[in-house]
Specification:
The chain is α/β, with parallel strands linked by helices. It is built from 10 helices and 9 strands. The longest helix is centred in the last third of the chain and has 25 residues, at 254-278.
């Protein structure tokens, strides 16, 4: 579920069935399931700020051509708005999905690995963006850097981006922060950036690149993925753990470890959330036992703010 962010979908994110999402055989079907669930949930929710229907207006600012003012809207509302040209409504988003080894984790009770969950979320976000005519691109981080494709909203581009998620990169891991820093130079100013990761890193490693994002006037959304077992530590019997990224193994007593572990998790979440806010962004936590509708709602809400739509 979401954390430290006002999320329009949070009141109806529970009515979709995670087992049904997990049973769908392709990423495109999972994407459609999420977006249809979002639209259906909006009709059940009192929230109207992220309505899927958008009028083509924004507020009037001094210097805008007077010829662009929609006088009919002014007559009805006594507010000055201008009609948006096609290029005015052209938002650009970049999704960065963590492909490092730690994303392969899945507790025995879980239906999806963190990677599978992140891919379904990314696919749903891109399908939503395509529906809204927003341009988008995607990169899988955590390994050797790849060139960032030019943002687009065409069906062939959507298919190409899904293809990146179907082929999880292999080879030597590169830190998520370093991969993100390498990609930063290719980003367009004013982009919406969506980071999907388990954020197994010191939050301060991300601070320098977040500063550069802010200089480029980019909007930053952190979507933090955790397995339910990682978040709540439900274990009772002695554990034999293997660290996915280093391969280190150890035996642990859950009862002795639980309190300290949960406190460290809380400290880590607090650090990430604080960093995101300090850099002008937001941090939302999602556990893999819930359908991540809140993330799609968060994007729509931010999109509304950027386009200054009127209800």
């Amino acid at each position: 579920m979401g954390r430290n962010v006002n999320t329009p979908a949070e009141s109806f994110g529970s009515f979709l069935d995670l087992s049904q999402l997990a049973s769908l055989p392709t990423l495109e079907l999972r994407a459609r399931y999420l977006v249809r669930g979002l639209y259906a949930g909006m009709h059940r929710s009192p929230f109207r700020g992220a309505n899927a229907e958008f009028k083509e207006h924004r507020e009037y600012f001094p210097g805008d051509p007077v010829s662009d003012i929609d006088w009919k809207v002014y007559a009805r509302t006594d507010r000055l708005v201008v009609r948006l040209r096609e290029e005015d409504a052209d938002l650009s988003a970049a999704l960065f999905v963590d492909g490092s080894a730690s994303m392969d984790f899945k507790d025995g009770a879980s239906l999806l690995t963190k990677w599978e969950y992140a891919c379904a979320l990314a696919a749903g976000l891109m399908f939503l963006m395509r529906n809204q005519k927003d341009r988008f691109t995607l990169s899988v981080l955590g390994h050797e850097p790849e060139k960032l494709d030019k943002p687009s909203n065409t069906p062939p581009h959507f298919t190409k981006m899904l293809g990146k998620l179907r082929r999880k990169p292999s080879g030597k891991d590169v830190s998520f922060a370093q991969s993100l820093s390498d990609a930063e130079t290719e980003l367009k100013n004013g982009s919406i950036l969506l980071l999907i990761s388990d954020f197994y890193m010191n939050p301060e490693e991300l601070a320098p690149v977040f500063d550069r994002f802010r200089e480029k006037q980019c909007e930053l959304l952190l979507f933090h993925i955790m397995d339910g077992a990682e978040r709540f530590f439900p274990y009772r019997d002695t554990l034999r753990l293997e660290e996915l990224e280093s391969g280190a193994k150890m035996l642990l007593s859950p009862d002795l470890l639980r309190k300290e572990y949960l406190q460290r998790v809380e400290d880590h979440l607090t650090g990430l959330s604080g960093l995101a806010r300090a850099k002008g962004g937001s941090h939302s936590l999602f556990t893999t036992d819930r359908v991540p509708l809140e993330a799609l709602g968060t994007y729509l809400s931010l999109r509304n703010q950027r386009l200054r739509r009127f209800p």
